[in-house]
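User: Here's a chain of 490 residues. Predict its fold as tokens.
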Amino acid sequence: MTDFGSLVRAHGKTQLEIKNRYPLPTEKNRVSYSIDAFMFTPAQLGINDERFSVDQFFSDVKSHTRFSISYVPLARLVDPGCSISPLTRIRNYLDTATFSADMSEHRVLYELRTLANLFSAEMKATYRLLSDIASAGISQHLVKKTEKFLDEASVFLQQFREFHSRFMEPSINSRIRTAMRWSDESISLSAEKMLFYLHRVFDGHKIQSVIENMMKAENQHRREMKYPSVLKNKNDSEIERILYRESILKKWAQTVLYMSSEETGTNRKIGHILAGVAAAAAMTFAIVATFFAERLFASYSIPWAMIIVVSYMLKDRIKEILRGILLRIMPRFISDRTEKLVDQILQKNVGKTKSMVRLVQLKETPRSVQAVRNAGANPFQTILPPENIIHFRKDISIKSGKLMKEHSRIEAVTEIIRVKMDRFLEEMDDAKKLLRTWKDGRISAVKGKRVYHINLVLRLVSSEDEEQLSRYRLVVNRQGIQRIEEVVSR
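Assistant: Prediction complete.
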């Protein structure tokens, strides 16, 4: 089974991306995972309750959940006996459908888009493998392996494009026919791009001519099919048009892998109820204090007024303290956002997620998280202004049995969480600072970047109680994320 884990990287200068991979075991009907992200921010950034509310945090967070499909070798994709190959399934649809009504449109569209994704993934994976091998030198073994790969790619392209004549039958509606063309154009662009990268790997080798001929063939094929993704004039507007077309085709193919999410608000309502309970308890205290004042002192006297004022002052504190206690002792029943995951093919609920965010103190974080954060830290950390800590938690539950029954090619679910960092940058000093030093025996000043460190500790837990801890250092300044370093705890 594919291991679960996280990948942290910058998405542009002002967005942090956390990509989590959740395997789907075939022997279980339901699996669950949770991720706790602790962001330790310097006190100077002012990340506190006044500037960073729950609603503000979630307005800066976007998440997408999609399937991760298994790699299928090109040789298997063209094998008629391979039941998971989209080519085999499309051929079966065409063979059994005698009328337009007999063919399930959304099934054919699903297989065509999946085929584009599988081909692109296989081309990328094979290119990376060949490129890694080539880094040690071009050997005869590598050349033969590359020639075999190019032959398999050619056979795949030939067999897939034989469907064009089948899709011209009168029983095929225009949407399916258009989907065939879009899939073909997407596959051609993927092939050309990976061949271009492969061409650079074998710089100066005779196999370059073979790769070059295949690239020319793909470009010529798109010309003959009158696809929009053909560069005719090398001006800026033409290049912009081609890049936009490529982006549209990529999104068209990849959206078949994404699940949509719909917020339910159930846990938020529970939170409101518990907050109401805390408010009711606090109000009860205030009323009892009022009865007590009325019993012991004359109405509108100074002692009576002091008891009333103190009771109302304590009422607000009691309400907040009780609410905090309830949120701590019932974390799995309260969340700031609850969403259900909907499979676009099944149009059914296949899972749910619960998310919550809190500003916490170091002592409120798990000991394992504290150990990872403090590993190799400044020995005088305790006397420095305390860091402001954002705790983001997300629980995900997936009906793996239902998904695997319908999608036999998927092996995991990938969740992409993106956090906008703009609010973190607002209180930072100017990015450039002067450093005074000695140079060539003379005093000089050199310009440098003033940076801040935000430590991110991730804690992943599976339904098998397997725990993973990792730490990253975000080096940022007013211009955004400069780099992200993984910190290995020792």
